[in-house]
Specification:
Elements lengths: L1 E4 L1 H15 L3 H19 L5 E6 L3 H15 L3 E6 L8 H12 L4 E2 L9 E5 L11 H11 L4 E5 L21 E5 L2 E2 L7 H4 L2 E5 L5 H7 L3 E3 L22 E5 L7 H12 L4 E7 L3 H7 L4 E5 L2 H14 L2 E4 L7 H13 L4 E3 L2 H7 L12 E3 L3 H8 L3 H6 L1 H12 L2 E2 L7 E3 L5 E3 L12 H14 L4 H23 L6 H11 L2
Parallel strand pairs: 1-8, 2-3, 2-5, 3-4, 5-6, 6-7, 7-9, 10-19, 11-12, 11-14, 12-13, 14-15, 15-16, 16-17
Antiparallel strand pairs: 1-10, 18-19
Amino acid sequence: MKYVVSSEEMANIDTYTIEEIGISSLVLMERASLAVVAKVEELITKLDRVLVVVEGGNNGGDGLAVARILHQHGYLVDVFYVKHIANASPQFEIQLKIAEKLMIPVYNKMPRKEYSLIVDGLFGVGLSKDIVGEHKRVIENLNTMNIIKVSIDIPSGIDATTGKILGCAFKADYTVTFGLKKLGLLLFDGVDYSGEVVVADIGFPEQAIKAISPKTYIYDSSDLIKKPKRLQNSNKGTYGHVAVIAGTKNVAGAALFSAKAAYVSGAGLVKVYTHESNGNVILSRLPEALLYTYEDYAEASLCIENAVEWADVVVIGPGIGVSGASKKMLQELLKNSTVPVIIDADGLNVLAEDMSMLKKAKCPIILTPHMKEMSRLVKKDISEVLDCRFEIAKKLSEDYHVICVLKDAKSIIPDNKGKFYINEPGNSGMSTGGSGDVLTGIIAAFIAGGLDPLEAARLGAYVHGLAGDVAKKSRGEYGLLASDIIEAIPSVLL
């Protein structure tokens, strides 16, 4: 697990490090600059010319230090100081004087030279208002240049907390960020404007991070150790029973995706409850599955009874439609189940019509809405959900005592301690039909294997994203299918 920080949290960590621990701001600046230089030196040779663009804040001070170190390493470096901030920071002034003494060219207008790489040192994580005027014109001009672009800490113009563009933003190929990844590098436009992100350790002590206690975190490869354990002395019953209530008449795909994903994620047995028209398709594509079919609502009611008695976790919703029968099935399941229930897809759309069903439940519940489904659940415009995703997901979780997996390019999962998991892996190729059904199956398998529902949701989202990234390597983002994600899961769980 690693923390991800807002602009305010990063500022507080920085202040604590300097004032409470006693590490000088200039020491931190030097280490930050060395990290940027290391990345730049990977990208160019000493025959290339570098332009460092700065303003008078501490981010600009980092930029001047980068220019100095590159100059001392024998690179051709120019500095463009936009100089439209009224009061430069003391650290910037120190770095500017050093640059001048070393005779590094510092221009107050864009130099008419050819460059191979630009270092963006205009604005850092403290930016809170729109970029306008000369700064906007400079950034827009820099963005037109077909050369390598590197940002210091965060691309200028990206809100470090929300990821939104503040007026305009520098579009980087690489971003070297310091200490901890910023939320804005994961959300909204920030993820598209930051390019490849390098997180550099510049000396923020663990004590400072613990003192501030950031509220958002991500998983990394070390967290895969949390997956359900496999025992030599075991059988199919050891790894649990997953019930998948999915698919309406002649609609079998969603059921197949969830069921197969559950199997390849470690579930011992998976039983698909679906309309009888889907039976042959499911058994021909997934012969490992158990099957319980129904034709009408009376039989569907019996399937709920069977699922509650048989399963260790129940999935309901993928492809079931939004008929009256679907509503009655969901009502009966929530009324009678004592095992965890995962509600997805059409199950969420049915639920949105009567949220009071959740109040009657006696079992742990996981909801997996994408942004549009969430807007229906909370009766808010989708733009508001996008803007206030953390607050809305948290409120839904608290109001109905559920685990909420709010799906997006970077899904978020609030916990019951005021903190948020944000899922970092994944790619645009996963924006395809059936991808959400796969996620549901993974989470179900992890619950069946013994994980508590919250941990299963977090780790399930992480594995789902990793599998999507593995699939991308062979399929690309244009041709990626939900079935490709399923096929990649075993390699992630090795």
